Amino acid sequence: MNLLISACLMGVKCRYDGNTKPLACLDELLKTHTLIPVCPEVIGGLPTPRVPAERVGSKVITRDGRDVTENYRQGAEEALRLAQMTGCTHALLKERSPSCGSGTIYDGSFTGRLCPGDGVCGALLKDHGIQVLGESRVGELLSPLAVRQADENDADAVTHLALELWPDHDFDELKSEMEDVLGMAQAAFFLLMHSDTPVGFAQCQLRHDYVEGTESSPVGYLEGIYVQPAMRKRGGAAKLLAACEDWARMLGCSEFASDCELTNEQSLRFHLHAGFTEANRVICFTKKL
């Protein structure tokens, strides 16, 4: 299938800052799609690098106040012509862009705030029946990922993935720990599978001690979750989390909890997006006796 795609997602240095945002799963996407790269800003006559621009009402204005609406309009029309000429029914475009954004864009204040809306090109493609996806939805275009519960025979696979998440551990020691957990009735590992290859895992267990912010016992607890970089933005982490929650629910839990380091912003965003509510922030102390 031919797929129109923002050129920056393919590694072309055409963003406003002269950089690129290549997809981690680009090689896999190329196995099932013929990619048609486009940068509406560039084919609309704008240079690279260029002054950042945002949509302000029906216009596109640069940070220094220049009206570049006509460049964006021309680039959008050329992108549409290319999509129609190559038979593209779908487009994978850079999110939040004043040209390629779909559903959410920057609000025109140049402060990083977002608002509902489409970029100029994204809107035009939609108006002509082309389905526009942002890069966070690339998983909808790839082979599906499946989740299954791990057992003792999966100790090696679990350990290899766990070492990617916790690289400071020794393989043999970590494998021994994984084998112990795999044999526990009140703990579980789930594997994220791409075809027959494990590409992610989640570890959960029941906690009977007090869990911050909860009112019941036991509580299902997410001990760790990891998806390999090339398989991210495909909903795999959400599938792993759902499997853990179903497991805890089956064991009678009415609450599910987790934690992350204070500095781990990526993990914090994942938890909040997944429906968790922040319960507290703590600093832990220790000393030798």
Give an account of the 3D structure.
The protein is an alpha/beta fold. The chain folds into two domains: 2-141, no CATH class; 146-273, Gcn5-related N-acetyltransferase (GNAT) (Aminopeptidase), CATH 3.40.630. It is 29% helix and 23% strand. Helix 3 crosses helix 4. The longest helix is centred in the N-terminal third of the chain and has 17 residues, at 69-85. It starts with a strand and ends in a 16-residue tail after the last helix.
Task: Annotate the secondary structure layout.
Elements lengths: L1 E5 L19 H7 L1 E5 L1 H4 L9 E4 L2 E4 L6 H17 L4 E4 L10 E3 L7 E3 L3 H8 L3 E4 L11 E4 L5 H11 L5 H12 L4 E8 L2 E11 L11 E9 L8 H15 L5 E2 L7 H9 L16
Parallel strand pairs: 1-2, 1-5, 5-8, 12-13
Antiparallel strand pairs: 3-4, 6-7, 9-10, 10-11, 11-12
Key phrases:
289 residues; alpha/beta; Aminopeptidase; five-stranded mixed beta sheet; four-stranded parallel beta sheet; elongated
Number of strands: 13
Q: Could you give a short account of the major beta sheet?
A: 5 strands, mixed
Tell me the strand percentage band: 15-25%
SSE order: EHEHEEHEEEHEEHHEEEHEH
Helical fraction: 25-40%
State the separation between the terminal residues, measured CA to CA.
66 Å
Report the principal-axis shape: elongated
Q: Write out the strand line-up for the largest beta sheet, numbering strands in chain order.
A: 9-10-11-12-13
Low-pLDDT stretches? none
Question: Please, what is the oligomeric state?
Answer: single chain
Radius of gyration: 23 Å
Mean of residue pLDDT values? 94
